[in-house]
Amino acid sequence: MKSVEEHLTGILERVAPLSPLELQLLDAHGSMLVDDVAATGDLPPFDNSSMDGYAVRLADVADASERYPVVLDVVADIPAGTSPDVALEPGTCARIMTGAPVPEGTEAIVPVEWTDAGMPTVRVRRTPDEGQYIRHRGDDVAAGQTVLDAGATLNSAQVGLLAAIGRDRIRVRPRPRVVILSTGSELVQPGRPLTAGQIRDSNSYMLTAAAREAGAIAYRVGNVADDPKALIDTIEDQLIRADVVVTTGGVSAGAYDVVKEVLTELGTVDFDKVAMQPGMPQGFGTIGPDDTPIFTLPGNPVSAFVSFEVFVRPALLKMAGATETARTVVQARCEAALTSPEGKRQFVRAKYTPAESPAALATVEPVGGHGSHLIGSLALADALVVVPEDVTEVRRGSTVDVMLL
Length: 405
What we know:
Blueprint: H1 4-14, E1 21-24, H2 25-28, E2 32-33, E3 37-38, E4 48-49, E5 53-56, H3 58-61, E6 70-78, E7 92-96, E8 108-111, E9 121-124, E10 134-135, E11 146-148, H4 156-164, E12 169-173, E13 177-183, E14 187-188, E15 199-200, H5 203-213, E16 217-224, H6 228-238, E17 244-248, H7 258-266, E18 269-273, E19 276-277, E20 281-287, E21 292-297, H8 301-320, E22 329-334, E23 338-339, E24 345-353, E25 363-366, H9 375-378, E26 383-387, E27 393-394, E28 399-404
Parallel strand pairs: 6-7, 13-16, 13-17, 14-15, 17-21, 19-24, 22-25
Antiparallel strand pairs: 1-12, 2-12, 3-11, 4-10, 5-7, 5-8, 6-9, 18-20, 20-21, 22-28, 23-27, 24-25, 24-26, 26-28
Helix pairs in contact: 1-8, 5-8, 6-7
């Protein structure tokens, strides 16, 4: 059997980051930047008010109080989106809205709540500090400043920043497009009744969601019957929209394991036994004219999920341009005893509880049994306890490695 490291290394050596594309901002959402991004102008681009109120000179309102308010002439009304054409003279002010440019001579903004909101004169009852409620040009971002580094993921805030500095297109590595399909004549789609010997197809839904959580664009094809021609036709039809294909089921040694049968004949996929539990039978290779990577995962739900986490997710992240592809692994105190087969790395579904203080140790509690069909317990887990190949017993209270999901 191959080790987990050997199999993963072989995969990562054969997948490469996708070629950069220049995309519209919203199409680039979720992708990784290829280049550093610098601002071509200041943000904000001009001094403006952060409050609805009145632009004032400090000397005019120095003695303002609730008992003795200061009365000023309002010489201008400045909404956002306009350019003020006045300068404040002694004894005058300008009504101003949030985001509007401040007129010449402004030293502070008096919020409308500190006044009687009057026009054409206003009574000011409090004195602001110098510069209070004025957003100064370049306070947020200065022209020439690098605002995003290459490799940054464009989430909602980053997309907003790019729009704010005037970028409508950006060069990114596109998110991998992943086609997911399950194999097995016993599978039925959710929402349809079961007959004798049938089960519902959960894998294609679970792995499509997992691929999306990894940042990919995922297409769920559903299930394909145990028919070699149907499988080949389905895969070939999907290659036009796939950077990666993921199948589940049909990779063991059974008489009807058509994935292994079909792809072995094509000579594009290597099928191996990997020293892990769950998920020992694994397949990986390329297919089609563009050498599209294809993962063939076991059919049991827990095996498929763990295989995705250990092998597929790192490959998708590398294709998206990430330099760090591994899940975070931490140490925790195991709250139950475990046994593990010698020579295999075991991934145990578990619930992780962070430490309550820096001096304490986090804890982890295994959930469910060892069965690779137990999807109910999988849904309760937010971590995997990783038991090394040379460890056959973990005592309660032992420190273990934990992969956070």
